[in-house]
Amino acid sequence: MRRCPPRTERGVVLIITLIILVVASLIALSAQRNVALEERMAGNMLDRNLAFQAAEAALRVGEAAVSSNTLYASAPGCAATATSCTDGYYAAGAADDVPVWKHINWTAANSVAAPLSVPSGSVDLLQANPRYIVEQLDASTRTFRVTARATGGTAASVVVVQSVYVPK
């Protein structure tokens, strides 16, 4: 009976297993990066939604101030070019004036901090209290532009909302 000489081991299984292990590791690393990116996107969306909801609430407060006749009945309003305005109410300017909301300092006293009634501790999610201003668009009509600005949990999530409001 003839015997075949023993073959030398070539290690092909070891090489294939190592290649499969490297490919599986790369797939797992890619999946981990995607999860981290999705988590950051979800956090940014939360910040933006908080800012949007706070700006909407401040907009409603500003509209209520116009509707209650407390702003423009008691004060003549600041000029559109004023650098500070304590009540946040700006009188109608020239038609070619730059809108006030584009150039004011929202952190100073020339806008009004909107008082929010929220559950205890939830205002801490915002970077700062939302603020609003009221601009009279035309001196002959009672048409106002209410602009509200809010910042979410980070300074990068800023939302500005506006409405043109005509009180009844």
From TrEMBL:
In terms of InterPro entries, this protein maps to: PilX/PilW_C (IPR025205), PilX_N_dom (IPR025746)
Pfam families for the chain: PilX (PF13681), PilX_N (PF14341)
Record's keyword terms, sorted: Membrane, Transmembrane, Transmembrane helix
Mark the transmembrane ranges: 12-31
The reply on keyword Lipid metabolism is no
| Domain Type 4 fimbrial biogenesis protein PilX N-terminal, residue spans | 10-60
| Domain called PilX/PilW C-terminal: residue spans | 88-166
This chain belongs to the protein called Type IV pilus assembly protein PilX
